[in-house]
Specification:
Layout: E1 2-9, E2 13-20, E3 25-29, H1 35-43, E4 47-52, H2 58-61, H3 64-70, E5 75-78, H4 93-97, E6 100-101, E7 107-110, E8 115-121, E9 130-133, E10 137-141, E11 144-145, E12 148-149, H5 157-168, E13 175-178, H6 183-193, H7 198-212, E14 220-221, H8 222-228, H9 237-247, H10 254-269
Parallel strand pairs: 3-4, 4-5, 5-6, 10-13
Antiparallel strand pairs: 1-2, 2-3, 7-8, 8-9, 9-10, 11-12, 13-14
Helix pairs in contact: 5-10, 6-7, 9-10
The structure holds zinc ion.
């Protein structure tokens, strides 16, 4: 059985550590910072064997070089070299550190953990964004957050809506591991969109309790997101109506609803 443990990094990042049956070999997902990971590995006497990267923003890759200095035998799996499209993109140093460049349909084998992940391409937040999926869980980086989704940096709303649909199509009980703790904040916006949605109101109470106790609200699940995440509920009449009210016109396609919600949240909520 895989155990997934969060290491807190930067202001609100989670670096997920994958372990199998309490064995010492572990895999690190999106190490935006090296220090907290090294501390966690040392305290727990763990040996990292691989790094998985969902996309090349610095808060997901900033720790790769230092970790490789300490653990040079590790492999690094990540996306193709993304065009440096904005200030958050890191320079060319990280692609050079990637051992295995992967994309849609590839399989990542992790022999030390006797496990494998399928790679799916979920562009929208960035063009290079990947998710790593198996039958029980998905690492989805900055594409999807608890009750929300990432901002659009280099992708388009249409791409992003398709990517959300791809995540939504995973089995209902798939556990979802995004890379940031934004759930409670996102639920505030979800309540703007659907003030009468009881699942959102209930989740808000549940997640606030966790946060007050200093616990992560993650992982989430596909089932929970389908019930409470407006960006995964684009076809729900109340979501569509709220998006149309913001846009001031009728919206015909799912991606248009997505675009209006994203613009509404960016301009008036965040
Ligand atoms: Zn990002």
């Amino acid at each position: 059985m895989l155990t997934i443990t969060p290491v807190n990094a930067l202001s609100d990042n989670y670096i997920w550590i994958i372990q199998k049956n309490k064995q010492p070999d572990v895999v690190i997902v999106d190490p935006g910072q090296a220090e907290p990971v090294i501390k966690y590995l040392t305290e727990n006497k763990l040996q990292p064997v691989a790094i998985l990267i969902t996309h090349q923003h610095y808060d997901h890759t900033g720790g790769v070089a230092d970790l490789l200095d300490l653990f040079p035998a590790m492999s690094v799996t990540g996306p193709y070299k993304a065009p440096s499209e904005n200030k958050l993109s890191i320079d060319l140093s990280i692609p050079d550190l990637i051992t295995y460049t992967v994309g849609e349909g590839d399989t990542v084998f992790l022999p030390e953990l006797e496990t494998k992940f399928e790679v799916i391409s979920i562009p929208g937040h960035t063009l290079d964004h990947l998710a790593y999926v198996n039958e029980e869980l998905v690492f989805c980086g900055d594409a999807m957050f608890g009750a929300g989704c990432g901002r659009i940096f280099s992708g388009t709303a249409q791409m992003f809506a398709d990517s959300m649909a791809k995540l939504a199509a995973l089995a209902e009980n798939t556990r979802m591991y995004p890379a940031h703790e934004y759930t409670v904040d996102n639920l505030g916006f979800a309540k703007w969109v659907e003030p009468d949605n009881k699942d959102i109101i209930e989740r808000d109470i549940m997640e606030m309790e966790k946060q007050e106790q200093g616990l992560p609200t993650l992982p989430s699940s596909v089932k929970l997101e389908l019930a409470t995440n407006p960006f995964m509920r684009l076809q729900q009449p109340q979501v569509k109506q709220a998006a149309e009210k913001f846009a001031g016109r009728e919206l015909h396609e799912d991606w248009e609803v997505f675009a209006a919600l994203r613009e509404w949240k960016d301009s008036e909520y965040d």
